[in-house]
Specification:
The protein is mainly alpha-helical and 364 residues long. The chain folds into 2 domains: 163 residues, no CATH class; 122 residues, no CATH class. It is 79% helix and 0% strand. It has 11 helices and no strands. Helix 1 crosses helix 6 and helix 9 runs antiparallel to helix 10. The protein is globular, with a radius of gyration of 21 Å. Bound molecules: protoporphyrin IX containing FE. The site of protoporphyrin IX containing FE has 22 residues, from helix 1, helix 2, helix 4 and helix 6.
């Protein structure tokens, strides 16, 4: 296999753990980042939608305000849970990731000021929302739009790192780093896929939150369930079409593997489609029946997300394989640091779980 000459050689510094372990940790922490991001982007979009329905639907403004209150916590969780996959991504694919980040330096740098502005937007909505009067919905819309723009920057980076063949054209076209990767046909469907998925999963989280509030606020809880499950069903339906667009935009060789060329890839794709269809049916059923349990729809949503993360990973591994080359990557395992990381990660997940349960109990 001939590595593309433009791709830097592997880092001389050894990896701190075997690549397989870092890979598992990348997928695990990225999935956690996605859940928080979905709560944030989905929450902002659903709050905006409910605000627009405030005149027509009783209780919509209250639910929108409640979601708005939680937005700063979602920003903090998204950012914090973004750091871990960033570290693993740099360790495993640094020579692709850094090259792509340098080529699109200005959009990439702009992520931080955009994040700060949107964070202020979330705080204003949360703490001063009621005093903003007519400015409240436009502020929420601007905040949601900035988060969607940040997602677009992430998608540009995640796709540009896969395409060393595009690097020279972009870099020499604009060596100052004012580049995007919008000429790549994957970018738009991948971004829309991520955004629709975020609103769908945000909807499920809203329905679960409603369940926790059934005792204290039955009417609000019913609205949260209805709106949340509606968003889950409709946006997943839209995502079946967007997902097909995304699939057809993949590079021919990768697409071939999903179309029977690899049992693993074809199996993942089939499982993803079946679980998405099951999710639509279960969301519609739970929405029709107020008393139906949310466990089946939650389990299938979790399965769908895991399959999507694995499918995305398979596509990336396949696309990078032709550029990786055969130079060995040095490993010097830092067992104590890895054990400490694992311990802290498990403790953090346990504490967050405990806090969520306490909150849910307080709501009841
Ligand atoms: C708060 C707003 C954010 C949003 C809406 C967001 C959204 C996204 C989306 C949609 C992706 C998937 C990109 C793709 O695969 O095409 C992604 C990936 C990623 N995000 Fe975020 N993100 C946010 C903030 C952050 C921050 C602040 C960090 C770092 C501290 C971060 C770290 C990452 C990493 C490392 C990946 C890629 C993981 C991988 O490729 O394996 N994100 N993000």
């Amino acid at each position: 296999m001939n590595p593309t000459p433009i791709v830097p050689t592997p880092d001389a510094l050894p990896l701190p753990a075997p690549a397989a372990l870092l890979h598992v940790l990348l997928l695990l922490t990225f999935t956690l980042h996605l859940v928080a991001m979905n709560a944030l982007v989905g929450g902002a979009v659903l709050a905006l939608w409910l605000r627009g329905r405030a005149g027509a639907v009783r209780g919509a403004a209250d639910v929108a305000g409640r979601i708005g209150k939680a937005l700063p916590v979602c920003v903090a969780a998204t950012v914090t849970l973004g750091v871990a996959p960033l570290l693993f991504l740099q360790a495993l694919h640094g020579r692709f990731f850094f090259a792509a980040s340098v080529i699109m330096a200005w959009p990439w740098f702009s992520l931080i000021p955009l994040l700060i502005v949107a964070y202020y937007g979330a705080y204003l909505e949360s703490f001063r929302g009621a005093r903003l009067a007519g400015w409240r919905a436009p502020l929420l819309a601007a905040t949601a739009a900035i988060f969607a723009l940040i997602a677009l920057i992430q998608v540009n980076n995640a796709t540009l790192l896969l395409r060393p063949d595009r690097w020279p054209t972009l870099y020499f076209g604009n060596p100052r780093g004012a580049n995007w990767n919008l000429g790549d046909p994957q970018v738009v469907p991948r971004w829309l896929h991520a955004l629709s998925g975020a609103v769908a999963i945000g909807g499920l989280l809203l329905a679960l939150w409603g369940k926790a509030r059934r005792g204290s606020d039955p009417e609000g809880a019913r609205l949260m369930r209805r709106v949340g499950l509606g968003a889950l069903g409709w946006l997943t339906m839209a995502n079946v079409a967007v997902g097909l667009w995304f699939l057809l935009a993949l590079e021919r060789d990768v697409l071939r593997r999903f179309m029977g060329g690899s049992g693993h890839a074809t199996g993942l794709l089939a499982l993803g489609v079946v679980s998405a269809l099951a999710l639509i049916a279960l969301a519609a059923r739970a929405r029709r029946r107020d008393q139906a349990s949310l466990t089946p729809v939650t389990v299938v949503a979790a399965l769908t997300m895991i399959v999507m993360v694995l499918t995305r990973d398979f596509a990336r591994q396949t696309q990078l394989a032709e550029h990786v080359g055969s130079l060995p990557v040095a490993v010097a395992t830092q067992s104590v640091n890895i054990a400490l990381f694992a311990l802290l990660l498990v403790a953090a997940i346990a504490i967050v779980w405990w806090m969520v349960r306490r909150l849910a109990r307080a709501g009841r």
